[in-house]
Amino acid sequence: MAAVDPKESALRQALAEKQAAVDAQAAAVRELKSAKSADQAAIDAAVEALKAVKLEKASIEEQLQAMIKSNGNDTAASREAFRQSVINTLERRLFYIPSFKIYRGVAGLYDYGPPGCAVKANVLAFWRQHFVLEENMLEVDCPCVTPEIVLKASGHVEKFTDLMVKDEKTGTCYRADHLLKDFCKDKLEKDLSLSAEKAAELKHILAVLDDLSAEELGAKIKEYGITAPDTKNPLSDPYPFNLMFQTSIGPSGLSPGYMRPETAQGIFVNFKDLYYYNGNKLPFAAAQIGQAFRNEISPRQGLLRVREFTLAEIEHFVDPQDKSHPKFTDVAQLEFLMFPRELQVSGQSAQKMILGEAVGKGIVNNETLGYFIGRVYLFLTSLGIDKDRLRFRQHLANEMAHYAADCWDAEIECSYGWIECVGIADRSAYDLRAHTEKSGVALVAHEKFAEPKEVEKVVITPVKKELGLAFKGSQKMVVEALEAMDEKEAMEMKANLESKGEAEFYVCTLGKNVTITNKMVTITKEKKKEHQRVFTPSVIEPSFGIGRIIYCLYEHSFYTRPSKAGDEQLNVFCFPPLVAPIKCTVFPLVQNQQYEEVAKRIAKALTAAGISYKIDITAQLVSTLLWRYPSVEDMGGREGGTSIGKRYARTDELGVPFAITVDSTTSVTVRERDSKQQIRVNIDEVASVVKEVTDGQSTWADMLWKYPTHSSASADD
Amino acid sequence: MAAVDPKESALRQALAEKQAAVDAQAAAVRELKSAKSADQAAIDAAVEALKAVKLEKASIEEQLQAMIKSNGNDTAASREAFRQSVINTLERRLFYIPSFKIYRGVAGLYDYGPPGCAVKANVLAFWRQHFVLEENMLEVDCPCVTPEIVLKASGHVEKFTDLMVKDEKTGTCYRADHLLKDFCKDKLEKDLSLSAEKAAELKHILAVLDDLSAEELGAKIKEYGITAPDTKNPLSDPYPFNLMFQTSIGPSGLSPGYMRPETAQGIFVNFKDLYYYNGNKLPFAAAQIGQAFRNEISPRQGLLRVREFTLAEIEHFVDPQDKSHPKFTDVAQLEFLMFPRELQVSGQSAQKMILGEAVGKGIVNNETLGYFIGRVYLFLTSLGIDKDRLRFRQHLANEMAHYAADCWDAEIECSYGWIECVGIADRSAYDLRAHTEKSGVALVAHEKFAEPKEVEKVVITPVKKELGLAFKGSQKMVVEALEAMDEKEAMEMKANLESKGEAEFYVCTLGKNVTITNKMVTITKEKKKEHQRVFTPSVIEPSFGIGRIIYCLYEHSFYTRPSKAGDEQLNVFCFPPLVAPIKCTVFPLVQNQQYEEVAKRIAKALTAAGISYKIDITAQLVSTLLWRYPSVEDMGGREGGTSIGKRYARTDELGVPFAITVDSTTSVTVRERDSKQQIRVNIDEVASVVKEVTDGQSTWADMLWKYPTHSSASADD
User: Mind telling me which SUPFAM superfamilies this protein's record contains (chains A, B) (predicted)?
Assistant: First the structure.
């Protein structure tokens, strides 16, 4: 990933050489000029030569600049411009609003306005349909306020941190890795005199940024002389800042709590009840949709990195000895972009792979993990995520927690780059073990054997009398420590006792070694009949950042097209009906009582069909309609006269897929947003036609074939 | 409300008199016994008389006890028993789970388990349908984390408190009003020797408990010698404890924030954008569903008083000069229990009223408020709330905030008493004004006049030169204060200046009075033309405690009936299909491949019809089915042999309204939960039949009429 382009390296080398040539020639010119003996012709020739070599250097500089741009920054400006159009439209139409705007807002907090709220509700409803209902998952709903003990067990109290530095004079806080990243990027983009070696070093830092320790980050910040961006003051050493919002539960001030950083813990702590609810059988999955919180040091990237967000998480509990999935064949034929760690390490790109093959070859660790990767792919593409800008990237070994068996992120490409939107991890037994240990409640599963199985087990029998004589008051601790030995330890001790007659033994509750003799304990292997296997289930966790998915969906759905007059660019969100905040609009072509009555009849039929719509009856227009579109010239009752093209443009900008225009008392025109094609449908049929295409039972193409197409005054171009 | 029952009062009086008679007679007996002259007969007679009067006293005691019980406590025991059955069923079937149970939980925090989560999702979906979509409301979704300035403006930082007392030795915290309430109730119930006056006093305290100041509460606690319930230690004076969970936003520790105590503030701060989105027109409503937080001092009443809960709130913005509602006629004919403040004050009960009349007579302040009361009634009764245990109680004058125009609570009666579940308040312009003042952003509406209107306005012109001479450096403050006078103040000053030549004037920025002479300011009335009216809208706020509504719904839906054998009581939740966590079940009557295939075909048809169901194919039974019902005897694959009656009983307990039993390859049996009636329906029709009855297009009675009824092996009794 950090591989330095050899061409770029060669150019930097050439540039350095040419710079040396310029310096040498300039020195020569200066020498000639200062030498009294030199004639003008020689001076002129040397100056010409300097000019020439400067031109050559400029040419190399230009090539290098172009290369840096094309290495990831070529489209930076156009990406930025695209993002601005999307964001402007989103903010203007209140898809989102910076929270508490009248108080100058709070970084990293955003509201969903009316259309954004509807999109979010649609995405969550589909998530529930696609995962919870389809897979018979057990959905739960736990509080955000979480007592400290739960998050100590999960490791969040200790490890959910980012490294922070402070401006030593003003106290302003920065993320240490952000400062170093900005420094490296800036150098690489703007400092052309950078040597190839230095460039490679900076690129390497960017590649390993996430893995740097506080000490390493601090050393680099010192080495490069990085200062506070706003004041240029010196910075403190990096230190960890816990990203959880802390609070206190109850009035005593003695019960610390946190706003949950993820919803998963609420499921883990309920494992026992859920397992019981499921008839004490594995596998089963539990799911939860809810708010999570992350007190970012300095939020960036707009809607992508926020301090409060909606997560939708699944914890699929499975026997670690059998991670097959009965429905894997349903997704095995899917083919999409995958980015296994081997491709990443060798500097290659993501490749299209068939999921079944990826699992078959062991690229994906197991069928259940593979099944969820496939289901996530189907989920995202159904929402309207572009499959060519969606990839599943495997975590590198150093990215994964030590306990994880495998982990893949669904990454979606948007103007900010490739963004992790869903994490799909096989977390093995880590979480259940952690809570078992902390709570003392065994979060385990049982497999009853059809017939009892014979197993060989180590039996440790301390001889209490001897131990009492030897250790007196400490006897109990020694006995407990002996009994707690695992099989390996016990067999080692047995070997020592047999060969040497005694063994050194560390008793942690005493904090020291003691000597155990062969009179003090007997260790044997015995055959026992077991009726069941008791084990901690593994958990496979697909975790969805709903806000990130929605933002990427906005970018993937957005396009512009010229207005009819060609004088402006009109914005369109091409949301599929599933996601669209409103499924259709109804309006009479002209102000006319008959048409209005028809519009109301259609509206009633749409309600009965369960289709969300907006009706625009001019008389009530301004208070009830869809295109609450607040550009100043439209105010003051002038909307009755708004051209049909403008009306369509406004609904296109909200992503409304279908528009019904009442232009007769028997049939109406139905217009599709993206093709702008129109069909004529009988008034009594129109609600069911819209229902069919929005429910996905038919396509627009089916309708074009079934109904007469139409072009008339109600067309927008 | 605090009226003491005159009969009870008379009984207490009689009891006190009888006690005096007992004491007197006992004294007489003692005297006789100690007197040497008394003969045995006289003593015996006196003892008999004592016995008689004691018996009379006991009889009065019994009557009083019975009366106390019937005054609200008669059914206490049966209520408690009923609640226990409901709660046991809810916990056993995981409708809810105490949060973080394996860590011994946190008071006031509960999880929704799988069926509870489904009920909640259904209630919220219906809320969205009934309010947001039906009324074209603007739904928003704002963060829970809220900066302090917002909650300072709203008054929560200062006033969102409960009075707390601390055990002076252990530091344990209690709600002061709870302790006083418990003391009074306990005395009234158990201390029969209480005088009628004392009883009246304690009842009065219970009635005015919410209005007592910290000082008054503290005085009563001292007067009655109330100590810490657990330790009997003395208590501190009551002091306010803020109920918001506090946190800190960002890493600096300098930006205090709180977890929002309500969702409403997120709407108010967005008023300007939402008004603009609505085409700058009133009225319109915004809505929000989300989590809210309340750090209760000592949560009681189980699911009713919790520290984190889901609110659904509507803020309907309206011109204060016109609170009519165009759709009021839709609800005007509704008749239900209302409890206006006059009835409360005069000690009467709630009465059935026709909503239109209540608004017409001015009992309800305005049409819009009345409209929402009617819509809330329809919402709650559609969910299954019993209309006879639902009343709308008007706030008493002392309960309402000073700014509120009127306020009604939808109260639902459950085993805990009458519980406030929805508040419907006309909050006038309070909230928007508060945020306008704090933020400096005018949250106002405009009404453009068709023609400019002539209005008379006061014009205040300070004479700066004179003011400068008189007040030097303070001139600016005086000028500003003069200009800020309202019409009334200005006209008073004008009168004083004209009569006395000078006026005393308080300048708040200087903190003192100054003397203004008639040279320093001119005050005139001038006619001006105005093109628009600028005003702060009033807001009418229906606010729904979703968890409370759901809990009351559980109680109203729960009943028991004997099993077929009559040996046990079976639990049923008679949820309407709208609310039911699962709409129907499908299972083959016997293990049989043909039947299983039919069951799968029906399941597919149900999916296509959008009906949530659970299918129970015996082979896969334990891992996929509905009655994940973990009673021990059912485990271990024996479920295949479970009787049909037991299967029904399990689904009844989850409130599943319909069960499809496959008992032939052409038609099936459909059983309705509450009547246990069955009909035979063709396999190809069954999905649409279930859809019709669950969507409410047909009733079960319609189906009974349309399809043959059935009684067979698949009947449960």
Answer: Class II aaRS ABD-related (SSF52954), Class II aaRS and biotin synthetases (SSF55681)
- Nearest chain B Cα distance for residue A182, angstroms: 20
Kindly list the residues from chain B whose CB atom is less than 8 angstroms away from the CB atom of residue A117: 139-141
Alpha helices for A430-504 (secondary structure H):
430-439, 464-471, 475-483, 487-500
CA-nearest residue to A634 within chain B is: B279
Distance from CA of B390 to the nearest CA of A (A): 28
Choose among B97, B24, B106, B14: nearest CA to B62: B14
State the Cα–Cα distance between residues B590 and B619, nearest whole angstrom. 11
Average pLDDT value for residue range B357-373: 97
pTM over 0.90, yes/no: no
Beta bridge partners of B333: none
Name every residue whose Cβ is closer than 8 Å to that of residue A351 and which is 6 or more positions away in sequence.
A337, A338, A339, A343
Mean pLDDT of chain B: 89
Chain A, chain B: beta-carbon pairs less than 8 Å apart: 251
Residue B218: φ, ψ to 5°: -60, -40
Which among A212, A579, A243 is positioned nearest to A379, based on CA atoms?
A579
Specify whether the CB–CB gap between B102 and A439 falls below 8 A: yes
Q: Which residues contact B692 (CB under 8 A, 6 or more apart)?
A: B698, B703
- My answer on whether omega of the bond before A238 falls inside 30° of 0, hence cis, is no
A439 and B102 within 8 Å at the Cβ level: the answer is: yes
Q: B265 by DSSP, 3-state: which?
A: helix
Using CA atoms, how far apart are residues B2 and B203, in angstroms rounded to an integer? 6
> Which helix (DSSP H) or strand (DSSP E) does residue B224 occupy?
none
Interface test with B, best of A90, A92, A96, A103 (most B CBs within 10 A): A103
> In Å, what is the CA distance from A688 to each residue of B184, B286, B564?
64, 30, 46
Under a CB-based contact definition with an 8 Å cutoff, are residues B461 and B497 in contact?
no
Using CB atoms, which residue from B101, B249, B435 is nearest to A102? B435
> Hey, are the CB atoms on A277 and B630 less than 8 Å from each other?
yes
Enumerate long-range contacts of A591-600, CB under 8 Å, 24 or more apart: A591/A618, A591/A619, A591/A640, A594/A665, A595/A662, A595/A663, A595/A665, A596/A662, A598/A662, A598/A665, A598/A668, A598/A683, A599/A662
Among B336, B398, B385, B402, which Cα is nearest to B364's? Answer: B336
Considering only alpha carbons, which residue of chain A is nearest residue B164? A251
**Residues of chain A contacting B128 with CB distance shorter than 8 Å:** 121
Q: Cβ B635–A279 below 8 Å, yes or no?
A: yes
Q: What is the dihedral of CA A412, A416, A417, A423, to 10 degrees?
A: -40
Residue at A213: amino acid letter = S
Chain A residue numbers with beta carbons less than 8 Å from the beta carbon of B255 are 106
Kindly report, residue by residue over A166-184, the tens digit of the pLDDT.
Answer: 999 998 899 999 999 999 9
Helices A593-609 and A686-695, packing angle to 10 deg: 40
b/e string for A65-99 if b means 16 or more Cβ within 10 A? Answer: eebbeeeeeeeeeebeebbeebbebbeebbbbbeb
Which residues in chain A show pLDDT less than 70? 1-4, 70-75, 617-642, 711-717
* B307-324 confidence digits (pLDDT tens): 999 999 999 999 999 999
Strands (E), B472-592: 502-507, 512-517, 521-535, 538-545, 558-562, 569-573, 584-588
Our CA-based measurement puts residue B115 at a distance from the nearest CA of chain A, in whole angstroms, of 8
Q: Hey, of A127, A141, A311, A654, which one would you mutate to test binding to chain B, going by the most B CBs within 10 A of its CB?
A: A141
Q: Which residue has tokens 């009883």?
A: B199
Question: B248: which chain A residues are within 8 Å (Cβ-Cβ)?
Answer: 245-246, 295
Which 3 state secondary structure label does DSSP give B350?
Answer: coil
Cβ–Cβ gap B249/A116 under 8 Å: no
Residue of A nearest to B281 (CA): A623
The answer to whether B645 and B627 are in contact (CB under 8 A) is: no
